[in-house]
Amino acid sequence: MSLRTPSHPSTSRGAVAALTLAAVAILAGAVTACGGSTEGTGSPGIAPEAAADAIHHVLESDRTVYARHVVNRLQDEEGVIAASEQWEDDRALPLPAQMFRMSAQLTAEKTDRVSYALLSPWPINSRNAPRTEAEEAGLESVAADPSKPFYGTESLGDTEYFTAVYADIAVSPACVTCHNAHADSPRDDFELGDTMGGVIVRIALD
Amino acid sequence: MRSPRPTVVWLLFTLSACAWLGWSLARPRAAVFLPGPSSDGHHQIEAACDLCHTPFRGVAQEACLDCHAEELESARDSHAAAVFSDPRNAADLAKLDVRLCVTCHTEHQPEITAAMGVTLPRDFCVHCHADIGDERPTHVDFAPATCASGGCHNFHDNRNLHQDFLARHGAGGAATFEGLLPAREAWIAVDLGDRAPLSAVDADSPGNAAPELAEAWASSAHAASGVACSDCHGGGADWIDRPRPDVCASCHDAESTGFLAGRHGMRLAANLEPMSPADARLPMRPEAASRTLDCGACHDPHDVDLRVAAVDACLGCHVDDHSTAYAESPHAGAWRAELSGEAAPGSGASCASCHLPRSEARLGGAPRIVVQHNQNDNLRPNEKMLRDVCMNCHSLAFSLDALADPELIRRNFRGLPARHVESVDMVPSPADGP
User: Fold this and answer.
1) Nearest-CA distance from B375 to chain A in Å?
2) Range of the domain at B278
3) B261 shares a domain with B142
4) Confidence label for A40 from pLDDT (cuts 50, 70 and 90)
5) Residue B136 forms contact with A (CB below 8 Å)
6) Complex ipTM
7) Which neighbouring-strand residues pair with B410?
8) pLDDT score at A28
9) pLDDT-wise least confident of A19-28, A114-123, B3-12, B201-210
10) Are B72 and B156 in contact (CB under 8 A)?
11) Which residues lie below 8 Å from residue A84, measured CB to CB, with a gap of 6+?
12) B29 occurs within a structural domain
């Protein structure tokens, strides 16, 4: 799978979101096949772990592209436009984490088979703290070993889900600075390379 | 042998009842089927049951979104359905399924309907935010029913109430009373090309048209823009004396969209007869009862004097305390000073300044300042006025205090707020440092 870097700043966010959606839709379709019989379709299906890993690769790549080639370039290198949490008020770029959440919301409007979220034991918004046992176990696991994803299943509502958690590492000084300085952040001692939380990918198994 | 008479009577009664109900259903006002009075926001369209009700499906979510989706989108809905579709919220949804409008807004139940059509008890926030005191120690003693008090939190629209906004605008700042409204920017939805201005001799109306109408038109912005009589009325055999609102909308699309979304125009949007003051729940002048509300009700299409639509048109119908107090209000004084030329353009405050605010809109290009013609848009709740209206002239804290004072609103802001909304001061200003 390859991703194209958006060539025009003003369309970058839309392009990234569109790529994410397309990839998620394809992977969701593939993993649906793995949850049921493959008879008659000839499809071998994909293991939930592989599907979740692939979705995470797309999400991580998109966010990296946005952070590196849109936010860092336009804000820090060329000084064209700033990124701000209050991006509409400030006529600024959304922060990479906000781009990620908007993309997750857009996906939720299109499918209830796959969802993803950015969570942390030290969230700026308390709604992004772990809420299920799998989320708590997953965030603990990736904090202990960021290189190893956490996999599990959980029942939420009346649906069974495959839940994967991946470490979210502070890769940019901007991540650390913003979280450490934010009035609502429960931590102000993040350092580059720290695990700040995790990306949760859920796939409905029913 | 049993007499057939009771059966015949029963059959006749049943058939008559069915015929009457069927006839009632087909009439424009199917009031007989209403299970109870509709809310203030929907009574204008209650005759059109099928706008909200889908046969055998009750009130479908799509029916709500057909009218309200755009508003929720522009409000950056804090409780958007897509946010709660994430399965991690399943436990919350089991308590209160906020993905569905009808969870909080049910119709035809006036005995439990509060402001903005909310039919849940005022402490409904506690279902999901019971532990807010742990996160915000300042909130630990607040009663669960007070979340929305004094302009603190709204369920859907918190654009003017988030912490950064309050901090940036000096929540504890002193009252200010001077400022200017932003200037309107001319915008129409069509390209008129390079039309030459027209004068009275260019009027292409039928010969029997009243000459005073042509004279008024000749001095209007329409004539100045090269818009002839036939552009709106049609030419020759297609001539119509009173063009429908969609004729206005062909050029004034943004204004028309707002008008049709508000209580003045929502009947037209639903293909019903236009709203009339006689059908309003607010006090209206008896002499205005027979009027109908379309674009021409406020804007004389030949005169196009926007000052008439800004005050006189409103007070020609509305006669509630707030409206009748306007003439003696400081806002009206500033408006008169502006009209007389004693004060700068934009320094006065007409009815339209607050209820038809000059707001930034994206109309397929750079943002423009246009007049929001949905006069209810910033009243649900009234803190939505802060950004586009009040804070053009007043400080944030003063504005919040004023909007939270019903008696001051009744007096049309003649006087000062009776109390200060102290919760606003919980937000540290940037000057306070981290």
Assistant:
1) 23
2) 252-423
3) no
4) very low
5) no
6) 0.80
7) none
8) 53
9) A19-28
10) yes
11) A90, A92, A93, A95
12) no
What single letter denotes the amino acid at residue A7? S
Q: Where are the domains of chain A?
A: 9-204
Q: Which of A35-49, A57-71, A142-156, B87-101 has the lowest mean pLDDT?
A: A35-49
What is the model's pLDDT at position B2? 57
Q: Are A73 and A31 in contact (CB under 8 A)?
A: no
Report DSSP letters for B351-390, one per residue: HHHHHS-EEEE-SSSS-EEEE---TTTT-TTGGGHHHHTG
Q: Amino acid identity, residue B91?
A: A
What average pLDDT does range B71-75 have in this prediction?
A: 90
Give Cβ neighbours of residue B326 (< 8 Å, ≥ 6 apart).
Answer: B311, B315, B332, B351, B412
Residues B132 and B257 grouped into a single domain: no
In this model, does residue B93 exceed pLDDT 90?
yes
- Report whether the peptide linkage leading into residue A186 is cis, meaning its omega lies within 30 degrees of zero: no
Q: Is B141 on the interface with A (CB under 8 A)?
A: no
Q: How many domains does chain B have?
A: 2
Would you say A14 and A71 are in contact if contact means Cβ atoms under 8 Å apart? no
Tell me, yes or no, whether B232 lies in a domain.
no
Q: Establish if B428 touches chain A: CB-CB under 8 angstroms.
A: yes
Tell me, letter by letter, the H, E, C secondary structure of B126-155.
HHHHCCHHHHCHHHCCCCHHHCCHHHCCCC
Please compute the mean of the pLDDT values over residues B180-185 and round it to a whole number: 90
Judge if B256 and B402 occupy the same domain.
Answer: yes
In a domain, B236, yes or no: no
Nearest chain B CA: its distance from A156 CA (Å): 6
Helix ranges (H only) for B270-312 are 295-298, 306-307
pLDDT, residue A2, reads: 31
Higher local confidence (pLDDT), B200 or B22:
B200
Residue B64 lies in a domain: yes
The residues on A that touch B, with CB distances below 8 Å, are: 85-86, 88-89, 104-106, 108-109, 112, 115, 117, 126, 131-132, 135, 156-157, 159, 161, 181, 183-184, 200, 202, 204
At B200, which amino acid appears?
Answer: A
CB < 8 Å to B434, chain A = 181, 183
> Alpha helix (H) ranges present in A111-155?
133-144
Q: How far is CA B29 from CA A98, A142, B97, B319, in A?
A: 48, 63, 33, 27
Contacts of B81 (CB under 8 A, 6+ apart): A109, B61, B98, B99, B100
Residues A88, B162: C-beta atoms closer than 8 Å: no
